[in-house]
Amino acid sequence: MTPVAAVNHWFSQRMQRWLAARLPAVTQIRLDRRNIFILPTGPGLLFLAASTLIFITAINYILSMAFGLAFLMISVFLLSILYTFRNLQQLSLRRLPAEPVFAGQEAAFMVLLQREGKRAHEMLELGFPGQRVSLANLLDDVEVRVPLYLPAPQRGLLKAPRLRVQTRFPLGLWRAWSIVDLSMQCIVFPAPVPGPLSGRANATASGQSEASVAGTEDFQGLRSYQPGDSLKQVAWKSFARGQGLQVKQFVDQADDRLMLDWAMLPGLEPEERLSRLCHWVLELERSGVDYGLRLPGVEIDMGRGAEHRLRALTALALWNGHKGVSS
Amino acid sequence: MSDAREQIPRISILWLLAALLLLILPHATRLPIWVSILLLACMGWRLLIFAGRLGFPQRWLKMLIVIIALPLTVMQYRSLGIGLDTAVCLLILGVVFKLLEMRDRRDIQIVIALSYVLAMLSFIYTQTILATLHAILCFILITATMLSLYRDNARNTIRDNGRLAVTLVLQSIPLTIALFVLVPRISPLWSMPLPVSSSTNMGVSDEMTPGDITNLGRSSALAFRVSFSGDAPAHEDLYWRGLVLDFFDGRTWRRAGSTLQTYQMIQRFPSTFRGVPIGEPVAYDVILEPTQQSWVYALQLAETRSDGIVQDRNYALITEKPITQRYRYQVRSHLQHQSDLDLSAPLRARALQLPEGDLNPRTAALAAQMRSEAASDMDYATAVLRLFREEPFYYTLTPPALGDESIDEFMFTTQEGFCGHYAGSFVYMMREVGIPARVVVGYQGGEYNPYEDYTLVYQYNAHAWAEAWFEGEGWVRFDPTAAVAPERITLGVESIFADQPGFLEDAGFSMMRFRDTQWLNTLRLRLDAMDYAWNRWVVSYDEDMQNQLLGSWFGENARQGLLLTLGSVIVLFFILGGWLLLRKGQYRQHDPASRIYLALLRELAVCGLPRKRGEGPGAYCRRVAALRPEYAEQLQQVTTQFEALAYLQTSAAAAADSSRLGQLRALEEGSWQLRRRLLSPWRRLLVTLGVVR
Predict the structure, then answer these.
(1) How high is the pLDDT of residue A322?
(2) N or C end of chain B: which has fewer CB within 10 A?
C-alpha cells in the first residue's frame, strides 16, 4: 500500500467509525441539524470568487454601489445556507422492503420519503456512493417512494451501504447532505443458468417421492411434444436428462413431482449448482409442476405457487455451505 | 455524483438570455455599433439553437469570429488607451461568445458568474438610483437563472422561479444594508486609471476666448450641487471660483502652466495660507459632476481639508487627477476676507502681462484718459464699470464674431457680449494703466432646492468675472457683467435669457424647458432632491463617512464596536432567518372548497364538535346532526355542496368553470350562515387571534 493510499484508508476508517457513532443504523430517520452536513459547492466557490472580484473592484475604483452588489451577493450566499438546509430539514426517511433480485441484476432498495413539516422539499438527490442518483420532489405530496439502485453481483443477502441524501436547491451554491444507514438489505437469488440435471437424477431422486412413483404400471410410454399439448404432461424427468420435450401418454400424478436435489448436479461447483437449481425452480414454477428442493442442511417439501417459489429461491440465495441457510 | 456533464434546462437559457440582454443594454451607447450588432447576432443564434432551428456553430466559425473580433476591439479602443473600456467590451464579448458553446451546467455556471461581474461594470460609469434599480433587476434575473438550473421539477416555471428569486433578493437586502454600513472600507489597493467618458460635459475650460462660454449657456446639464451647513449666502454672493486666467495673447485668456505641475509643486513646497479671513466662514459640501478636469469650484476665500485638493497661489483649488466621477468635497469659505496685501513680484508681473504690440490702441487711449480723470485706482475701476453701464452695451448669448483687435472691436463697434467679453475687456483696461488684474472663470448663482435644502449649479450658470489688486486692499472682485445686466447676478441667468434664442438650445427635451409649468418644475426639483440625497448618503458613503458615523455610535472604540456590531449582525441574521425560515411551514395547497369547509370545521370544533380522525364529511354530518339537531339542516346542505365540489370535481371538471364558481359561492354563503350561528363575531376574532381555543 502506498503511503497516500494508507492515509486514505486510515482516514476512511476513521470516517466510518465516526459516522457509525454519530449516525447509527436505524430503520427510520428524521433529518435535522444533528445529521445534516452542509458545505459550499464548486459553483458556490465560483460565486464567491465573482463577489470577491467585485469587492476588489469596488475598493479600487471606490464604487459604493459595487460594494452594495458584492454585499448583496454575499447575503444571498449566506441566505441560501438556510434555504438549502431547510430543504432537507424535517424530512424523514424510512426503509421499505426491497424486492429480491437475481444476481447480476440491479437491486432496487425502496425508501419512503415523508415530510414531517408542512413545507415542500425540492430536488432531493438520493443514491449510494458512486451509484446512479434518484431525484425526488415533495411538492404537494406528503410522501414519496424512491427507488435506489445498487448492482447485485452475487447471490446472498445484499446489505446496502450508507445512503447519501443531498440537495443543492435552491441556487446550487451549497450542498446539504446526510449519510444515513437505514440497514437496508435485499435478497439476491442466484443467477439462473439453464442446463440439464444430471442422469443420476432417477437414482438419487430417492426417498418418498421415488416410492410414490414406484407403483405406476399403466405408464404407456412417451411421444414427442406437439404444440398444444398440456405442459402438465411433459415428461420433465426425461427432458431434464436432455432427451428433448416428450409427453407422457398415461400420466401418473406422482410422476409429475420433482425433487430438485443438490446431488443431481455432481461435479459442479456449489455456486454453479445453485444457479442451475434456480433455473429449474423458475422453469417448474412456470409450467405449474410441483417441486421440492433439497440442499445439504435444507429441505423444502413439494409445493407450488409464488410463496413456495420465494421460499425455494430464498433458500438458494441464502444457502451457506453445509451449515444450512445463513441468517 | 458528478454533475459536471449535466444538461442545461431549457428554461435556464431563456432566463440567461433575458438577463444578458438587460445587462448589456446600458453599455449599448458606449460600445461600438458593430459590437452591439455582433452581440445581438450571437444572442439571436443562441435563441435559434434553443428553438431547434440552428445547431451550435462549427469550430472554425467560432475561431473566425474570435480572430476577427478581438483585434478589431483592441484597435477600436487604442485611441483611448487599453483601459477599462476595452476590458468591459472584451468581457461582454467573451460572455456572449460563450453562449454559443454553452452545452452543460459547468459552462453556464461560468457565464452566470461573469454575468454578476457584468452587472457591476455599469457602476463604473454611473451610480444613480436608476442604475442601481437596473442592477438589482439584473441580479434577480441572473439569480432566477441559477435557480432554474437546479429545479428539475414541476415548479421550474417562469412564475415560480421569478417569485423565489425576488424573495431571495428581498430577504437578502437587510443583511446587504448592514454589511454596506458596517464592513470596514479601505483605501484603494492600487491605483487604476478610470475610463474617460466621451459624452460628459466638460464644464468651464481652462482658457477663454470671448464667445466660448456662451456654449455653456446652451446646456442645462448639472455642474455641481452644494449644501450649506448654515444658511446659504445670497444669490449675488455665489461666485463659484474655478480657475484664474492671467495670460492674454490678444484673443484668448489662459492660465500659466499645467495643473499637474502646479499640484506637484505645491505638494513639494506647501505654501502658507496667505488670505486674511474676516468674520465667520460658511461651511458647505459640494458634489461635483465629472468634469475630466483637475480643478474644483468654491467660494472665495476657500479652505479645504479634503484629500487630493491643494490651493494654488491664485487661490484656485487644484486636484491631482482629473475628476472622472462624481466627486465630493468639503469647503469652508470666508466670504469676508483680504488676500495678498503684499503682491509678490512674479505675481504682479503676471497680473500686468499684456500681449506684444499695440493691438487695441483705442482702448489703450480710452484707459489712459479715464485714469487721468480718476482720483485713484479704485475710482478708475468704478469709472470703467460705469462706462459699461452707461454706454449702450448689450448682454447677449449670441454675440457677433470678433477680429484680431478683439478688445477695440468689442468696446467701440459691436458692444454686444457675454460675460467673457466684459471680464476680458475690464482686465485689459486695468492692465493698460498698470493695475494688476486677472480673469476668473467659474459659475455664478444656482437654484435652491427646498426639498432637500441644497443648491443646484448648472452649466448655464458658467460665468467669468475679474479681480483687480489695489494697494492696501488686496484682490477685489469686480463683475463687469453685473454693471451691464444686474439682474444676471441677482436673479440668475435664466431670468434674463429665458426668451433669448440660444439659451438651453442643446437641452433638448430636458425638463428644464418646462420650468414655467409649476407642477413639472416641482417634480423636477423633487427628482433631483432624491438623486442628490442618494449621492450624498449612499454613493459617497466612504471611509470618512463610515468613521464619522461609527465614531458617533461608539465614540473612542469605533473599530472594536464595528467588528462587534458586524459579528452580531451576522449572528442575528442566522438566528432571525433561521427562525423565520426553518419553523414549520403552512400548507397552502388547499382548494377553495376545502378552505371554506375546513374553516367551518374549525369553528365547529371550537363549539365542542370536533371531527374525529378519519371521519368523512358525511359521517361527521350525521354524527353532528344526532348531537345537535338544530344545526342538522344547514350542515347537511353545506356537506352536500362541499362533497359535490370536492369529490365530484374530476367528473365535473369538464363542466364550465362558471357553474363551479356559482357552486363555490353557494357553499361559502351556506357556510357563513352556519358560522354566524356558531360564533359571535367577537368570539371569532378572539379565536382567530388565538386568545380563545
Answers:
(1) 60
(2) C
In DSSP terms, A96 is beta-bridged to A110
Question: In whole angstroms, what separates CA B455 from the centre of its chain?
Answer: 17
* Interface residue B534 vs chain A (CB under 8 A): no
Q: Give Cβ neighbours of residue A20 (< 8 Å, ≥ 6 apart).
A: A181
Q: Which of A61, A75, A129 sits opposite B179 (nearest CB)?
A: A75
Whether B426 and B483 have beta carbons less than 8 Å apart is answered as no
Complex prediction ipTM: 0.77
In contact, A28 and A92? CB cutoff 8 Å: yes
Rounded mean pLDDT of B298-309? 83
Residue B419 a catalytic site member: yes
DSSP 8-class letter at A191: P
B540 and A64: CB-CB below 8 Å? yes
**DSSP letter string, B272-333:** PP-EEE-SPPEEEEEEEPP-SSSEE-EESSEEE--TTEEE-TTS-EEESS---S-EEEEEEE
What contacts A280, CB < 8 A, 6 or more positions away? A197, A240, A258, A260, A291
Q: Are B40 and B21 in contact (CB under 8 A)?
A: no
Kindly indicate the confidence band of residue B138, based on its pLDDT and cuts at 50, 70 and 90.
Answer: very high
Q: Using an 8 Å Cβ cutoff, are B206 and B257 in contact? A: no
Confidence of residue B172 (pLDDT cuts 50, 70, 90): very high
Which member of B134, B334, B421, B463 is catalytic? B463
Q: Which residues of B touch A78 (CB under 8 A)?
A: 172, 175, 570, 573-574
Q: Are B149 and A169 in contact (CB under 8 A)?
A: no
- Using a CB-CB distance cutoff of 8 angstroms, which residues of chain A are in contact with residue B151? 122-123, 169-170
What count of other Cβ atoms lies within 10 Å of the Cβ of residue B7?
Answer: 10
Tell me the angle at which helices B10-24 and B84-99 cross, rounded to the nearest 10 degrees: 160
- From B273's Cα to the closest Cα of chain A, the distance in A is 31
* Domain positions in chain A: 20-187, 201-323
A85 or B272: which carries more pLDDT confidence?
A85
Whole-Å CA distances, B27 to A187, B119, B126, B194: 65, 11, 11, 16
Q: Which residues pair with B447 in a beta bridge?
A: B456
Q: Which of A45, A55, A60, A71 to mutate to test the interface with B (most CBs of B within 10 A)?
A: A71
Cα–Cα distance, B662 to B559 (Å, whole number):
66
- pLDDT tens for A198-218 read 644 443 343 334 333 433 444
pLDDT in tens, A127-142: 998 888 888 988 888 8
Is position B134 annotated as part of the catalytic site?
no
| CB atoms A67 and B585 under 8 Å | no
Q: CA–CA distance from B67 to each of B71, B78, B80, B259, B327 (Å)? A: 7, 17, 22, 42, 40
**Is residue B693's pLDDT more than 70?**
no
Distance from CA of B125 to the nearest CA of A (A): 10
Task: Tell me the shortest Cα–Cα distance from A133 to chain B, in angstroms.
Answer: 7
For A82, nearest residue in chain B (alpha carbons): B578
Question: Is a pLDDT exceeding 50 seen at residue B80?
Answer: yes
Read off the pLDDT of residues B411-470 as tens digits, 9 standing for 90 and up: 888 888 888 888 989 999 999 898 999 999 899 888 888 877 888 888 888 888 999 998
Q: Hey, is B8 helix, strand or coil?
A: coil
A130: closest chain B residue by CA: B1
CA dihedral sign, ordered B133, B134, B135, B138: positive
Residue B439: which of B258, B204, B236 has the closest Cα? B204
CB contact under 8 A, A66 and B120: yes
The continuous run of DSSP H or E covering A137 comes out as strand A134-138
Nearest CA in chain B to A141: B589
Average pLDDT over residues A240-263: 67
Measure Cα distances from B329 to A226, B224, B323, B334, B462 in Å. Answer: 108, 11, 12, 17, 20
